[in-house]
Design a protein that fits this description.
Subcellular location: Membrane
GO cellular component, one term: membrane
Low-confidence stretches: 1-10, 14-19, 27-31, 421-427, 476-481, 485-503
Largest sheet: 2 strands, antiparallel
Distance between the termini: 128 Å
Shape: extended
Number of strands: 4
InterPro entries: ALMT
Radius of gyration: 38 Å
Protein name: Aluminum-activated malate transporter 10
Mean pLDDT: 78
Membrane topology: Multi-pass membrane protein
Oligomer: single chain
Order of helices and strands: EEHHHHHHHHHHHHHHEHHHEHH
Number of helices: 19
Helix content: over 70%
Structural class: mainly alpha
């Protein structure tokens, strides 16, 4: 046996104590240096950071892929913006075109960046506002420059500064006017910016006129490229987006009404807690849709006629339909609150009153959903539906039956209490269950009344937008079916032809 001794690197009062280790003969002792342990720790930290960075990149890529897969038009929009910038950059990098527009070619690039929007309506709105505001500000600035130059050196600074003050103040105040705010807010901002830049410049009238003309050309080039790229390559129309969103919200509201009533009676009939279905939360999309509807309705007014959306299509009526849906969604939200309350009281609540009204409430909810789905199909297909009127009539009949059952509810409760052998204190949950059921039934009747308001708004939209009749849609289908039948049976075609001659 040998003794291996390990000493500190330096002797002194701060040196570590001597360490003696007994090892077998012929063995060696390896002392790990602190630097090697530090290197291993550093390598582990770098590896962990690299793995975290890899996970972050993979998560980001997955989110980007999900966004693009949910709506491929977003990826197409990015390609359209790149194409527009590539086209407008030709005027900057090509010498003959650059000589034609001069150094102001960069204004065309800036115009594409600030004007290009996701929808055609947004692009037209910003493009026209920018062009009109720039032209009007340039004309006013030229007039003020000419007046200031003729007034002499003494009054020229006062005229220019006073004009900037007055025009900026009036233009800024006009942005508080609702009509100007909705349609020309961006144009007013560009007017203030352009006039202020031109007014405070020290150029002569001739130089200002040349600069204004050059910038108008370049801005017109940028706006034209934006219009062509946005409207001709996979266009996204704000009017169609508003139209589809209205029909989609009706479908979600229909599912929410039906699911709320089903979840209430399912939760009240079980002792365990049951979470409301995700379908019952569809009303939230309706409540949160006001800002989207307002913006899309304002942008759709700037769009040219396309498809079945004419020049004066009543986009404002879609906001009335959305307001009627939100009016109904507030009652659905109250129904969801009753469902959650039923979850906490399900274990103690008897079901006498519940069984009395369950079938009637479920039938009314199903008919409410049917009316909303028929209205959604009518809006989506842009046709008037005769089934919608029949569904409303069935809903009114079911509501009357439900009201009759509600009037018979007190007698049912009295019979249940008389037949109960339990003490009077045990009938308190029965009264609570009846009150809660009465609230649910009243809310359901109110929902049916507000759904009729939605139907009225849809009928007004159909009248203003000239929706086609469902009978007109069926006639071409019947004629096509008859032509196919005569093609398959030549003898039948002769008979049909003779019948038409006789007529």
């Amino acid at each position: 046996m040998e003794m291996a001794t390990v000493k500190g690197a330096q002797d002194g009062p701060g040196a570590p104590a001597e360490c003696r280790v007994t090892v077998p003969e012929g063995a060696s002792v390896a002392v790990e240096h602190e630097a090697s342990r530090g290197a291993r720790t550093w390598a582990a930290w770098v590896a962990s950071r690299a793995l975290a960075f890899r996970d972050m990149v993979l998560g980001l890529g997955e989110r980007v892929w999900t966004i693009g897969a949910d709506d491929p038009r977003r990826a197409v929009h990015g390609l359209k913006v790149g194409l527009a910038l590539a086209l407008v950059s030709v005027f900057y990098y090509t010498r003959p075109l650059y000589d034609g527009v001069g150094g102001a070619a960069m204004w065309a690039v800036l115009t594409v960046v600030v004007v290009f929007e996701y929808t055609v309506g947004g692009c037209v709105y910003k493009g026209l506002n920018r062009a009109i505001a720039t032209a009007s500000a340039a004309v006013v600035a030229l007039g003020v420059h000419w007046i200031a130059s003729k007034s002499g050196d003494k009054f020229e600074p006062f005229i220019r500064s006073g004009s900037v003050f007055l025009l900026a103040a009036m233009a800024t105040f006009s942005r508080f006017i609702p009509t100007v705010k909705a349609r020309f807010d961006y144009g007013v901002t560009i007017f203030i910016l352009t006039y202020s830049l031109v007014a405070v410049s020290g150029y002569r009238v001739g130089a200002v006129a040349a600069m204004a003309q050059q910038r108008m050309w370049t801005i017109s080039i940028g706006v034209s490229i934006c219009f062509a790229t946005c409207a001709l390559i996979c266009p996204v129309w704000a009017g169609q987006e508003l139209h589809r969103a209205t029909a989609r919200n009706m479908e979600r509201l229909a599912g929410a009404v039906e699911a709320c009533v089903e979840d209430y009676f399912a939760a009240a009939g079980t002792s365990g807690s049951k979470q409301p279905s995700s379908k019952a939360e569809g009303y939230r999309c309706v409540l949160n849709s006001k800002a989207f509807e307002d913006s899309q309705a304002n942008l759709a007014r700037w769009e040219p006629p396309h498809g079945r959306f004419g020049f004066r299509h009543p986009y404002g009526q879609y906001r009335n339909v959305g307001a009627a849906m939100r009016h109904c969604a507030y009652c659905v939200e109250a129904l969801v609150g009753c469902v959650r309350l039923a979850e906490t009281q399900a274990a103690a609540a008897p079901g006498h009153a519940r069984r009395h009204l369950a079938d009637a409430c479920t039938r009314v909810a199903a008919l409410c959903a049917r009316v909303l789905r028929e209205a959604s199909a009518s809006v989506s297909a842009m046709t008037t539906s005769k089934i919608l009127d029949l569904a409303v009539a069935d809903l009114n009949a079911a509501v009357q039956e439900l009201q009759a059952d509600m009037r018979a509810l007190p007698s049912t409760l009295l019979l249940a209490e008389a037949g109960s052998a339990e003490p009077a204190a045990s009938t308190a949950p029965l009264t609570m269950d009846a009150a809660q059921l009465f609230a649910v039934t009243s809310l359901l009747i109110e929902v049916s009344a507000r759904i009729e308001g939605i139907v009225d708004a849809v009928n007004t939209l159909a009248s203003l937008a000239n929706f086609k009749s469902s009978a007109d849609e069926e006639k071409p289908l019947e004629s096509a079916t008859r032509r196919n039948a005569t093609r398959d049976q030549p003898g039948l075609g002769i008979v049909v032809g003779r019948e038409q001659e006789d007529r």
